[in-house]
Design brief:
The protein has helices at 2-8, 12-29, 39-62, 66-81, 95-119, 121-132, 134-156, 176-206; strands at residues 32-33, 37-38. The chain is mainly alpha-helical. The radius of gyration is 21 Å and the shape is globular.
């Protein structure tokens, strides 16, 4: 649909409406194609993609400031404390909630980024370092999650076979995601820093 929109120069809101309708339709019909899987997931991703266009169109007018940041943070916090699980594989009736919370996350993240850019200092440098090493985090974060899964197993006396759960232990409390997030980001960055500081200079010397 995005390709058609570019070729026919349709208004973005028309394409967004079409994708939203198809998303709901595919969710309702629960269509699944071999290899591709559930089609609705791809349409949901398309909706989130188009939400970015809406954000950039109105961001300066509506989506920056203390008020909108506080509102989006409050909504995300309330949902997190409700201990309710929600993902791209949500049910048909949860689709709209998922998209709304996703949009709140987008707005909140952009506002926090602007604030960090203003204050600068070590926090800014830390996030720049994360951004420069995104591929390292992406490649290693699932493996690093195993550290927290193992800790959870040891502390709660669970069966070690739970360590094979991917990407995390399904029955785990949402609070553990705080630790998953820190380790999933922090450990890959620590390994990269260690490599750049010690291993890389050593290899250069041998050459």
């Amino acid at each position: 649909l995005f390709y058609i929109q570019q070729k026919l120069k349709l208004k973005k809101r028309v394409v967004f409406l079409l994708m939203a309708l198809e998303l709901w339709g595919f969710k309702y019909m629960n269509v699944s194609i071999p290899i591709i899987g559930e089609v609705s997931i791809h349409f949901m991703g398309g909706c989130i993609f188009l939400m970015g266009f809406l954000f950039h169109k109105y961001e300066k007018k509506y989506f920056y400031g203390v008020t909108i940041t506080s509102i989006t943070f409050a909504l995300l916090l309330i949902f997190s404390l409700s201990n309710k699980e929600l993902s791209m594989f949500c049910t048909f009736h949860e689709t709209l909630l998922f998209l709304c919370l996703s949009f709140c996350g987008i707005i909140f993240t952009f506002n926090i980024s602007k604030y960090i850019e203003k204050i600068g200092g070590d926090i800014k440098r830390m996030f720049y370092y994360m951004g420069q090493n995104t591929m390292i985090i992406l490649a290693l974060h699932f493996m690093c999650f195993k550290v927290i899964s193992l800790l959870y197993i040891l502390l709660n006396g669970k069966d070690i076979t739970l360590l094979s759960s991917f990407p995390t232990i399904e029955s785990i409390d949402n609070t553990w995601w705080i630790f998953y997030s820190f380790v999933g980001i922090g450990l890959p960055l620590l390994l990269k820093y260690h490599y750049d500081t010690y291993r890389s200079p050593l290899l250069n010397r041998k050459r």
